[in-house]
Amino acid sequence: MNSGVLFLFLPLVFKGCVSGEGAEDCCPQIFLQSSGNLGETQSAVLGIYTITNQKLANTPHPVYAKLEEQGRHHVYFRVNKYGPQGWIVGGELLEDSFYITTGQTQPSCPEGIVGGSSGGNQTDVDIKFSIECHTDQVKIPCCQTVNVTANGIVQRNQGGSLGVFKQSGDLNGRPLYKGGHMAGFLFYRKTGSGPDGWVISTSTDPNFLMVTTRQKEYCPDVITAGFDRDEEMDNSLSIACVANEEEDYYQDPGLSALPLNRTTDQPTKDMVSANSGVLSMNSIRILSLLYLWVIHQ
Q1: Which one of 100, 116, 139, 233 has the fewest CB atoms closer than 10 angstroms to its CB?
Q2: Is the residue at 290 inside a domain?
Q3: Is residue 87 a part of any domain in this protein?
Q4: Which of 74, 109, 133 is the last residue of a domain?
Q5: Which of 33, 39, 79 has the alpha carbon at shortest distance from 55?
Q6: How does pLDDT run across 154-196, given as a tens digit for each residue?
């Protein structure tokens, strides 16, 4: 990981708290992400940070921390006439080396900041770096049960990752699903870099992935493709809601999911009811999205 002192001050680009607000008005958690060069050179310091009760002298700004195996990383507001000023990402507080500097001094809270640089390179600005609020709360209802199918390379190499998954909790602000032929997990990867989005694996370790989608939709039932171990694309992969959760479903690897003892020649009363259930779930989801859009205006 590169570190260094940066004296470049970037233009102010922010949408978060306005100047004058205190730390109590800032988001309790923030999310650092980049699909640009910082996503490659500083991936270890991206991700989810939580506000702490630590305070620095001469500044009312909050201090955020993320603890991992590599050590503790901080997002804090630096006030020092030597070196960079404003919001930075560093290791231990008040060290004279920095992983990411933004040069942005006006926002009282870090959420909404766009743009950052790594190390001592004063000209290499990553405009794809951003800081936004994070919450673990699941705000929009998704289907309780989904069925993952594919007939391409994912089915051939990762057939055990297919099948029916049911919600078993939440993770990273999205539903967490468990199931499939290998009793694996369908979850939302949120590390700030790499193939973030819906993935399938035998664990929730964000570094061990059987199937990735690189798609960041709120619910998984709109996924349109996948990647075998994040390498080769499979356009046949699909995730669909299973509306009738009372029936037992069986799916042989590589075959479309069908309920036991049911023909599909004519739509049955149960199938019509199931379709109505899907429509109701979509209606609730649309209303939730409209509500979230209105309160953020």
Answers
A1: 139
A2: no
A3: yes
A4: 133
A5: 79
A6: 999 999 999 999 999 999 999 999 999 999 999 999 999 999 9
CB neighbourhood size of 229 (10 A): 14
DSSP code at position 122 = S
Determine, yes or no, domain membership for 63: yes
User: Is the separation of the CB atoms in 254 and 155 below 8 Å?
Assistant: yes
pTM: 0.74
* Structure token pair of residue 89: 């990402």
Q: Take residue 137 and report the two structure tokens written for it.
A: 């709360």
Q: Copy the structure tokens of residue 25.
A: 């008005």
Mean pLDDT of the chain: 80
DSSP 254: T
Residue range(s) defining the domain that contains residue 108: 23-133
Residue with tokens 């055990």: 160
Q: Is 34 helix (H, G, I), strand (E, B) or coil?
A: strand
**pLDDT per residue over 91-143, tens digit each?**
988 777 889 999 898 889 999 999 999 865 556 899 999 999 999 999 889 99
My answer on whether 33 and 98 are in the same domain is: yes
Q: Identify whether residues 109 and 180 lie together within a single domain.
A: no
End-to-end CA distance of the chain: 38
Q: What is the pLDDT of residues 220-270, one digit of tens each?
A: 999 999 999 999 999 999 999 998 644 444 444 443 333 333 333 444 444
Residues 84 and 166 in one domain: no
Nearest CA to 104 out of 2, 8, 4 is that of: 8
Which of 115, 117, 108 lies closest to 130 in space, CA to CA? 115
Whether residue 52 is contained in a domain is answered as yes
Q: Where do we find the tokens 């870099």?
A: 193
